[in-house]
From TrEMBL:
Superkingdom of the organism of origin: Bacteria
GO biological process, one term: regulation of DNA-templated transcription
Name of the protein described by the UniProt record: Diguanylate cyclase/phosphodiesterase with PAS/PAC and GAF sensor(S)
InterPro entries hit by this protein: Biofilm_reg_signaling, EAL_dom, EAL_sf, GAF, GAF-like_dom_sf, GGDEF_dom, Nucleotide_cyclase, PAC
Domain PAC: 480-533
Species this protein is from: Marinithermus hydrothermalis (strain DSM 14884 / JCM 11576 / T1)
Length: 955
C-alpha cells in the first residue's frame, strides 16, 4: 500500500493574551502545492493566515490543542479539515513535535498526512490509546472504551472504569444533567459536536478540570458517544496562580506598610486561592512563641488555641511553622489526619476541616523574618504545581517586603527633607532648579513656583567674585563636593549666609543632578565673636576656661621666646567650703579668687589666668626663670590666703601649687600643663596647706612608680595576695590578752612579705582601698568564726571607705556573725574633717554592736568637741607620746591628761608603741587600760596568734 503523501512544516509561534500568533511557516518538502494548491512561497508570505484556513468547526479544537503546547505538551496528534486554494477541504492528520521553547515562544515540526476514511478508522483507536488526552466511548449509560490516559487521569483501571456509570466520574451536582445528556433518546436523535469545560472527580476524590470534545458516532449500528478530553487542571491552576501572583504584586504599590501588605496577601490567598486560612507568623523576642501579624479566613478561635514555637526540643516547635523558620524551606503536611508533625493541634485542625498545611518561610538577606502558614480543606492540596507557585510567592514576598521598606524609607526621607530646617536644593547638571524644600522658600523669601526652572544665579548677591564660582563648577564637574559659606541675596534684597555643601550626583561618568545642602548661618555670623568667647570663657569667673587657657598658652609658647612658668593652683578642701557655707558662697569665692589672681598677675608684669577645674586655676607668667619663682609665689599665695568676706562670713583659704617651666620641662601647652599637674599632685601629698612643688624629672619617675604599684596592687587583689598579721594588745593591770590589731601585709612573688609602708600611700590614693579593706574584713570574720574563744580584733579603715555605701553594707553583713568582737579604728583627723559623715557612719556601725577606736589621738588637733558628739569607745594614744614620756615631762603630762580625759568621758585608753618595761609600768601607774607594743608582742601571722590564744585567756 502506497503511504499517504505528507507535508512537513517548521512553524514558529507565540502566545499573547491567550491568542496564538503564527510568526513563520516554512515548508520542508515539496508536497504542499500538490495537496493544497498553495505554493510554498504563498504559505510563507502569509503565516498569520495559516490558522484561518482551518475549518470553522475544527478551529476551536485546533487552537485549544496548540495551546497545550504552550502549557508544556511536547507532542500533539490531531485530525482536522484544512481549506485548499480551490475552496475545498482536505482532511489532514497532523503530528506536532516541539523543537524549541523560549518563554511564550515555540517552534515545532508539523507533519501533515492526507487521511482517507479507511486510514482514519484504522488509526483512531491506535491514536486514542497513545494520545496524551483522555478518550472514552459511551454506549447507552456505560463506558465501552477508555484509553490509557483516561485510566491515569481518573485513577481507575480499565476494568473498574468500564463498570462505572458515566456520571460517577462527575461531581454530584452534574449527575442529573449527565444522565439526560447520554439518554438513549439523545443518542438516537444524535447531537452535534460538544466542546465544553467540565470538572471530573478521580478515584481519590480529587478534582480535575478537562476540556471535553464529544460527538455521536455509529458503533455496531447504534448511535454511540465518543468523548475526547484534554486535562486542563494544570493549565487552569497555573492561570489561577499566575493571576494570584499578579494580584499580590499589585498590592505592593498600594500597601501603606508591611503589615497591611501581608494582610492583603492573606486575604487574596483565602479568597482566590481556595484556602480555609492564611496567616503570617513571627516569633516573640524572649519566648520564641509565634504570634500572628496578619491573618485571613477561619482564624477566629483557632490562632488563640494553637501555640507554636521556634524551639525544636518541644512538639510545638516541630510543626511545619517552626521547621520552616529554622530550616528556611517550604514544609508541607499532605494529610493532617495522619502526619505526626501536627499532633498537638490535630483535633483543632480537623474540627475546622483543615486537611493539609503548608508553611512558607519569608526570607530577608539570608535570614527568616516570618512564616506564611496556609491551611486547605482537601488532602494533598499542595501539589507540585502549588509548591512551584509558593516558591515564586516566597520570592515575591521577600522582594515586596524589601520594596515596601525601601518605599517607607524613601517617604520618611522625603518627609524629613521637606520638613528639614536646613536649606536643600536639587538642580540639573546646568544648575536649573528642579526641587527646593520649604526651608529654601522660608530663607530666601521666594515661593516654590518662582524658583522651579530658574537658575541658582537667582540667589547671587555679588559678594563672590567669578573665581569663586569657577572653583565650584570645576569641583562639581570632576565629581567632587564643594563646601563654602555662600553670601546670597533674598527676594527682598537682604543678604543671608549659607554654610553650604554642593554634592554632584553622577550617572555614567557625567553629572546628572547637583544637590545643595546648607545651614542658614546668618545669625551665627553676627554672633560669631560671642560664640568664640563663650567657647573659651568660664561663665562664672569670666576667665579663660581650660580649653581657652591651653589654646592661649600654646600661642604664647609658639610666639614668644624665653622662660615661662605655668602654675596650677588648687584650693585646699574646697568641698568643705561648699558643704559648710553653700554653693552660692562657693561661687562668689571662686569669682573673687579669679579677680585677685588677675590683679596679682598684672602687678607681676602680665600673663594669662584661667579657671581650669572646679576649684583650680592656671597662671602663665612669661619671663619667669626657675630661680625667680620663689619671689613670685607669695603673690599667688596671697590671692588665696587673704580673708574673704561674704554676707557676714569671713574665711581664709589654703592653697596647693604645682609649677612647671618652658622650655626646661616641656615645649607644648598640653605637655607643660601635665608637668605642672604632676607637681600639683606632689604638693597635695605634702599635707597641710599653702604648699608648692616644682616639677622635676624625679616626679615623672615617681609617677611611673605609682602607676606600676597601682597595677601591681590591682593584680594582688585579684590573686588574693593581701594578708593579715596580728599584733596583740593586753590589759595593763593583768597582762592578759585583750585583743589584737589586724595589720595589712602584701605577699609579693619576688620580694616576699611587704609592710604597708611600701604600698599604703598608693593604695589610699586609689579606689582600690575600699575593696582591699572589705576583703580583709571578710578574712577577719573567717578568722573569728574559726576560734573557739573569739577575741576583739581591731582594724583601721580609710576615709574613702567611711563614705562608701557598699562598705557599710559589708560591715552590716559581717556584724551579724562577729559584730561584738570587731573594733573599727578611725584617725582623729578624719573625725574632725569629716565630722558629720563620721557621725552618721559610726552611729550605724555602733547599732550593729561594732566598737569604735580613735587612732593617733592627740596628734595635731586641739578641738575635743567631737568626743562629745561622736560614738567612740577607745582612745589610742599615739606612740610618739608614749616613747617620749620617760624623757619628757611634757609628753608625760599629755599622756596623763589623755588618760584622765578618757576616764571622765567613760572611754577606754590604748597606748601604742610600748617597747620597755619602764614605759609599761608608767602607763599602769597612770591608769591606762590597754597596752600594745614590741615589749609585749610583735606583729605575728595568724597561726602564731592562734598558738598564743591557746595559752592565754581571752576577754
Amino acid at each position: 500500500m502506497t503511504p499517504p503523501r505528507a507535508i512537513v512544516y517548521r512553524i514558529s509561534a507565540r502566545l499573547e493574551d491567550e491568542t496564538i500568533i503564527i510568526d513563520s511557516v516554512a515548508c520542508l518538502n515539496r508536497e504542499a502545492e500538490g495537496l493544497l494548491g498553495w505554493s510554498e512561497h504563498e504559505i510563507a508570505q502569509n503565516p498569520a493566515g495559516f490558522l484561518e484556513k482551518v475549518h470553522p468547526e475544527d478551529a476551536p479544537r485546533v487552537r485549544e490543542g496548540l495551546r497545550c503546547l504552550f502549557l508544556g505538551v511536547d507532542e500533539l496528534r490531531h485530525r482536522y479539515r484544512y481549506r485548499r486554494k480551490d475552496g475545498t477541504y482536505l482532511v489532514v492528520l497532523e503530528t506536532l513535535n516541539v523543537t524549541h521553547r523560549a518563554g511564550t515562544r515555540l517552534e515545532w515540526i508539523s507533519v501533515w498526512q492526507e487521511a482517507s476514511w479507511v486510514q482514519e478508522r484504522a488509526e483512531i483507536l491506535e491514536a486514542l490509546d497513545r494520545a496524551p488526552g483522555v478518550a472514552v466511548v459511551l454506549f447507552r449509560d456505560t463506558f465501552v472504551y477508555a484509553n490509557e490516559a483516561a485510566q491515569q487521569l481518573l485513577g481507575y483501571t480499565r476494568e473498574e472504569l468500564l463498570r462505572l456509570r458515566p456520571e460517577e466520574v462527575l461531581p454530584e451536582e452534574l449527575w442529573e444533567a449527565a444522565r439526560a445528556f447520554i439518554a438513549e433518546e439523545a443518542y438516537a436523535k444524535g447531537f452535534e459536536l460538544l466542546s465544553q469545560e467540565l470538572p471530573l472527580r478521580t478515584a481519590r476524590g480529587e478534582r480535575r478540570d478537562v476540556l471535553v470534545f464529544a460527538r455521536t458516532v455509529t458503533y455496531q449500528g447504534r448511535p454511540t458517544g465518543l468523548a475526547i478530553a484534554i486535562d486542563q487542571t494544570q493549565r487552569k491552576r497555573y492561570e489561577r496562580l499566575y493571576r494570584l501572583l499578579k494580584d499580590v504584586n499589585a498590592r505592593v504599590e498600594s500597601a501603606e506598610d508591611q503589615t497591611a501588605f501581608l494582610r492583603a496577601v492573606c486575604a487574596l490567598l483565602v479568597e482566590r486561592g481556595g484556602l480555609g486560612l492564611a496567616w503570617v507568623a513571627v516569633p516573640e523576642e524572649g519566648t520564641g512563641e509565634f504570634r500572628a501579624v496578619a491573618a485571613a479566613g477561619r482564624a477566629e478561635g483557632f490562632l488563640d488555641r494553637v501555640r507554636v514555637t521556634v524551639d525544636p526540643e518541644v512538639p510545638e516547635g516541630r510543626d511545619p511553622i517552626g521547621t520552616a523558620w529554622r530550616e528556611q524551606r517550604i514544609v508541607v503536611v499532605a494529610d493532617t489526619r495522619t502526619d505526626p508533625a501536627v499532633t498537638p493541634w490535630r483535633e483543632i485542625m480537623l474540627e475546622r476541616g483543615f486537611l493539609s498545611v503548608c508553611a512558607v518561610p519569608v526570607l530577608r538577606e539570608g535570614r527568616t523574618v516570618a512564616v506564611l502558614a496556609l491551611y486547605a480543606g482537601a488532602r494533598g492540596f499542595f501539589t507540585e504545581e502549588e509548591i512551584d507557585f509558593l516558591e515564586e510567592l516566597q520570592r515575591v514576598l521577600s522582594a515586596a517586603l524589601e520594596d515596601i521598606e525601601a518605599e517607607q524609607h524613601r517617604r520618611v526621607i522625603e518627609r524629613a527633607v521637606e520638613a528639614s530646617p536646613d536649606w536643600i536644593v536639587v538642580t540639573d547638571a546646568e544648575g536649573g532648579i528642579v526641587y527646593v524644600n520649604d526651608a529654601v522658600c522660608r530663607i530666601s523669601g521666594y515661593a516654590r513656583e518662582e524658583l522651579l526652572g530658574r537658575k541658582m544665579s537667582i540667589f547671587r548677591s555679588g559678594y563672590h567674585d567669578p573665581g569663586f564660582y569657577a572653583k565650584l563648577w570645576e569641583a562639581v564637574r570632576a565629581g567632587r563636593s564643594f563646601q563654602a559659606v555662600f553670601v546670597n541675596r533674598r527676594k527682598d534684597g537682604k543678604r543671608f549666609y549659607l554654610d553650604q555643601t554642593i554634592v554632584p550626583v553622577m550617572r555614567n561618568g557625567a553629572v546628572h543632578r547637583i544637590v545643595g545642602v546648607a545651614k542658614d548661618v546668618t545669625v551665627e555670623r553676627h554672633l560669631q565673636e560671642e560664640v568664640v568667647l563663650l567657647r573659651y570663657q568660664d561663665p562664672l569667673t569670666h576667665l579663660l576656661n581650660r580649653e581657652g587657657f591651653l589654646l592661649e598658652v600654646e600661642g604664647e609658647l609658639r610666639e614668644r621666646e624665653g622662660s615661662k612658668a605655668l602654675l596650677l593652683a588648687d584650693v585646699h578642701q574646697f568641698t568643705h567650703v561648699n558643704r559648710a557655707f553653700g554653693a552660692r558662697f562657693g561661687d562668689a569665692l571662686l569669682y573673687t579668687l579669679g579677680q585677685r589672681l588677675r590683679e596679682r598677675v598684672a602687678r607681676l608684669g602680665g600673663g594669662l589666668v584661667g579657671r581650669v577645674g572646679e576649684d583650680a586655676f592656671g597662671v602663665l607668667l612669661p619671663g619667669v626663670e626657675p630661680s625667680a619663682i620663689e619671689a613670685v609665689l607669695p603673690h599667688i599665695f596671697e590671692a588665696f590666703t587673704e580673708p574673704f568676706e561674704w554676707n557676714g562670713e569671713t574665711l581664709s583659704l589654703g592653697v596647693h601649687v604645682g609649677v612647671a617651666f618652658s622650655p626646661r620641662d616641656a615645649t607644648s601647652a598640653h605637655e607643660l600643663y601635665n608637668k605642672a599637674a604632676t607637681a600639683l599632685n606632689f604638693s597635695k601629698r605634702k599635707g597641710g596647706e599653702n604648699t608648692f612643688s616644682l616639677f622635676d624629672q624625679e616626679m615623672d619617675a615617681r609617677a611611673l612608680r605609682y602607676l606600676g604599684w597601682r597595677a601591681q596592687l590591682e593584680q594582688s587583689l585579684k590573686e588574693d595576695r593581701f594578708e593579715l598579721y596580728f599584733q596583740p594588745y593586753f590589759y595593763t593591770d593583768t597582762r592578759t590578752l585583750a585583743g589584737a590589731e589586724a595589720l595589712l601585709r602584701l605577699r609579693d612573688p619576688q620580694k616576699g612579705l611587704l609592710a604597708p609602708s611600701a604600698f599604703i600611700e598608693v593604695l589610699e590614693e586609689s579606689p582600690l582601698i575600699t575593696a582591699v579593706e572589705m576583703a580583709m574584713l571578710e578574712k577577719i570574720r573567717a578568722f573569728l568564726l574559726s576560734l573557739e574563744r573569739p577575741i576583739k580584733i581591731s582594724f583601721n579603715i580609710s576615709p574613702k571607705s567611711l563614705t562608701n555605701a557598699r562598705f557599710l553594707e559589708a560591715i552590716q553583713a559581717i556584724s551579724r556573725d562577729v559584730g561584738r568582737y570587731l573594733v573599727l579604728e578611725v584617725t582623729e583627723r578624719l573625725l574632725v574633717e569629716e565630722a558629720e559623715r563620721a557621725r552618721v557612719f559610726l552611729e550605724e556601725v555602733r547599732k550593729l554592736g561594732v566598737r569604735v577606736a580613735v587612732d593617733d589621738f592627740g596628734t595635731g588637733y586641739s578641738s575635743l568637741a567631737y568626743l562629745e558628739r561622736l560614738p567612740v569607745d577607745f582612745l589610742k594614744i599615739d606612740m610618739s607620746f608614749v616613747q617620749r614620756m620617760t624623757q619628757s615631762r611634757r609628753s608625760l603630762a599629755i599622756v596623763d591628761t589623755l588618760v584622765s580625759l578618757a576616764m571622765k568621758l567613760g572611754l577606754k585608753t590604748i597606748a601604742e608603741g610600748v617597747e620597755t618595761e619602764e614605759e609599761y609600768k608608767l602607763l599602769a601607774l597612770l591608769g591606762c587600760d590597754i597596752v600594745q607594743g614590741y615589749y609585749l608582742a610583735k606583729p605575728m601571722p595568724r597561726e602564731a596568734l592562734e598558738a598564743l590564744l591557746s595559752d592565754t585567756a581571752s576577754v
